[in-house]
């Protein structure tokens, strides 16, 4: 085994057994050189190997840190962040950044089925799992409903739960749009990552009874911390389709 692989394997073993937990900074190069009795290029090649395996990351100006394991989130039903993280055994929390009345731009107005310029309630939050920022959420609600929601502790009470349990607004279904994107300055600051970092951008419009949209969200998930999973069923083919194929 090449020397750099031996060094990488030893560090990877420390990550696997918990002696180097997520968020831990790796020792400086000089310490690794002394510990493993190898050259600087060997240490650097070992670190690069760990980076390629997704086990560590370089934080500019700070050092090399053990990465958080990716969260595997299923897209199979309409659920909120708190429900998702609790189902995965994580501890969810929320940091409220801003809440205010704003004029609906063309996108928000279209998703909430309102005229452009209608006043709506906007909520900006950072969602955390085990104290690590996972998502920056922008939520838009019709003004009347949003003002009711705003009267609650939005760092402790999930919006979905408030809508359904307190304001008699059952959530029936939602439309999801998911794409790869780069974090803009606002999302990057909220998630504590460099501007331009890879994120998943989800647009979610939730509907109540009567096919009425009541919640439009732009969810910015850190691409390095989460993976979305779903299960697809094969459409049943008719005998005519089979014969034509």
Secondary structure elements and pairings:
Layout: H1 3-16, H2 29-36, H3 40-52, E1 56-59, E2 63-66, E3 71-74, H4 81-87, E4 92-103, H5 106-112, E5 119-129, E6 132-142, H6 143-149, H7 159-166, E7 173-182, H8 185-191, E8 198-208, E9 212-222, E10 226-229, H9 239-244
Parallel strand pairs: 3-10
Antiparallel strand pairs: 1-2, 4-5, 5-6, 6-9, 7-8, 8-9
Written account of the structure:
This protein is α+β, with helices and mostly antiparallel strands. It has two domains: 3-66, Arc Repressor Mutant, subunit A (Orthogonal Bundle), CATH 1.10.10.10; 71-229, 3-Layer(aba) Sandwich (Chorismate lyase). Helix content is 31%, strand content 33%. It is built from nine helices and ten strands. It has helices spanning 3-16, 29-36, 40-52, 81-87, 106-112, 143-149, 159-166, 185-191, 239-244; strands spanning 56-59, 63-66, 71-74, 92-103, 119-129, 132-142, 173-182, 198-208, 212-222, 226-229. The protein has a six-stranded antiparallel beta sheet with strand order 4-5-6-9-8-7. Strand 1 and strand 2 (63-66) form a beta hairpin. The model has no long low-confidence stretch (mean pLDDT 91).
């Amino acid at each position: 085994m090449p020397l750099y692989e031996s060094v990488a394997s030893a560090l990877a073993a420390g990550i696997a057994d918990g002696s180097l937990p997520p968020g831990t900074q790796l020792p400086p190069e000089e310490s690794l050189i002394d510990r493993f009795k190898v050259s600087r290029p060997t240490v650097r090649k070992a670190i690069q190997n760990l980076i390629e395996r997704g086990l560590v990351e370089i934080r500019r100006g700070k050092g090399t840190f053990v990465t958080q394991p990716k969260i595997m989130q299923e897209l199979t039903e309409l659920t909120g962040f708190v429900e998702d993280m609790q189902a995965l055994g994580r501890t969810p929390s929320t940091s409220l950044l801003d809440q205010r009345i704003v004029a609906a731009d063309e996108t928000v107005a279209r998703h909430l089925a309102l005229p452009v310029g209608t006043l709506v309630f906007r909520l900006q939050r950072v969602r955390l799992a085990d104290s690590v920022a996972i998502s920056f959420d922008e939520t838009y609600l019709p003004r009347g409903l949003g003002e009711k929601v705003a009267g609650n502790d939005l760092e402790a009470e999930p919006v979905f739960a408030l809508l359904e349990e307190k304001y008699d607004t059952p959530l029936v279904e939602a439309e999801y749009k998911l794409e790869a994107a780069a974090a803009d300055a606002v999302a990057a600051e909220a998630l504590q990552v460099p501007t331009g970092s890879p994120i998943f951008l989800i647009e979610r419009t939730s509907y109540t009874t009567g096919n009425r949209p009541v919640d439009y969200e732009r969810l910015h998930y850190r691409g390095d911390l989460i993976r979305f999973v779903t299960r697809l069923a094969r459409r049943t083919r008719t005998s005519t389709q089979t014969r034509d194929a």
